[in-house]
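Page 42, continued from yesterday. The earlier attempt failed because a stray header line got pasted into the input along with the sequence. Redoing it now with the clean sequence only.
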Amino acid sequence: MQDIYFDHNASTPLAPEARRAMEDWLDHAANPTSGHRAGQAAARAIEQAREDLARMLDCAPEEVYFTSGGTEADNWALRGICHGEPGHLVSSAIEHPAVMETVHALRREGWQTDLAPVDGQGRVRIDELRGLFTGETRICSLMLANNETGAIQPVGEMAAAARERGIVSHTDAAQALGKHPVSFRELGVDLLTLAGHKMNAPIGVGALLVRKGLELKPLLYGAGHERGLRPGTLNLHQIVALGAAAKRFRLGREEVLEHNRSLRNAFVMQMRQAVPGLQVNGEEAERLGNTASLAFPGILAGDLLAACPWLAASAGAACNRDFTKASHVLQAMGLPMERIRSTIRFSFGLGNRMEEIPQAVAEIRAAWERLTKKP
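This time it went through. Structure tokens are written below.
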């Protein structure tokens, strides 16, 4: 069986446009901060990438700060606000570990923290989140799209509620980028995280969007790169690749979204016909069009994945390799443990073809039948 990649929420293949842009600069040795001609050529390429990213995200180029990826951006967003005398912060029960573990670390450092619950479809209840705000709340962080179920969260409502109370708002939009329309202006958040490898750019590059006028403490210290807020020589070839990936999505957005939706819908429909009792987690929520969280009756997710070594998919979040550890997202949704442990996330994107779907479904069904000893 030829390998099939249905794990685009974990990481995405490089878009051809991103690969070409990166290759054009791989042999360019000049530092973008250098004053000579070679350095200034690199600086112009970085600023073009910044502009392309800003146009995709509907923000000003000067609001874009490049980072090493989503984890750095999430840490910077929270710690850039949460410093000095400990206060209070609010997040959700379904955040990515880059946010969740930072929240836990701040709690150990004396911060008061509250996590908003979600309903059975995996969406935060905005009234309950708003009810967690206090006079001491400094920041509220709510992801835009969940990495396991794809559920879209009410980030715009969160940002509006936070603004009324003078609270800084942050969203980890890493999973949504390249899979869902995102406008920094329309969301109204103060801070937004993105990761290149989630949107067909390389691993190791990302950005934090910072609203004009917001005072954010640096996470790192060094030379005055990125307007004095994020030191370190800029990662030229990966940044230009990120810009190229952003431009590709902006120009072909509807085609990309329809491609993803059609693959996901065909896969779920055929999988339901193949596996009696299959359940779709968060099916009634607005979701990323490329994501399906499926619970297979009578088996453990890890066993089914082990029986299909040709298949790239994830049991829970890809950042957690321990199949025996129950998903905190599905637990927060109140799902029974048997269903949680039988759940596999499938996510579709660039390079997937419709003809892969029936082949994958047939092989997965055969493996499921062997594991459940069905005739």
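Notes: The longest helix spans residues 253-274.
Reminder to self: strip header lines before submitting.
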